[in-house]
Amino acid sequence: MYILDDLEKTRGKKYSVAVMSWTTATGKVIPLRIKYRTEDDDVAESGKIEILTQKQTLYNGIQFCFYECKALIGESVREFRLLYFPKNYEWKLVV
Q1: How far apart are CA 32 and CA 87, in angstroms?
Q2: Which site among 23, 57, 76, 80 is 20 to 30 Å from 30 CA-CA?
């Protein structure tokens, strides 16, 4: 069940990112790595993503998956959030 307090975690600035993911035979989508644009407009890639939590929900008629993740970004391990919108095949990084 999706708790409204968790909706706060989806708020923030959202950036479009490219995500390498794996889809299981049952349709579960698992993000593996992300590619993103740096402030210098270069393309950078994360290390392997560790998923801390994952939830699927429907909010205002929009289906999406919410992931809390951890990965090596640059030279340090950072926690971040990803949103996946299966209708559009679109990924967003939330900061």
Answers
A1: 20
A2: 76
Distance CA 84, CA 95 (A): 15
Instruction: Please give the mean pLDDT across all residues of the chain.
Output: 88
Contact 34, 17 (CB under 8 A): yes
Q: What is the pLDDT of residues 49-69, one digit of tens each?
A: 999 999 998 888 888 999 999
Half-sphere exposure of 54 (CA within 13 A, CB side): 10
Q: Report residue 5 as tokens.
A: 């307090």
pLDDT at 44: 92
Domain boundaries, the chain: 4-94
Query: Hey, which residues does 54 pair with through a beta bridge?
Result: 67
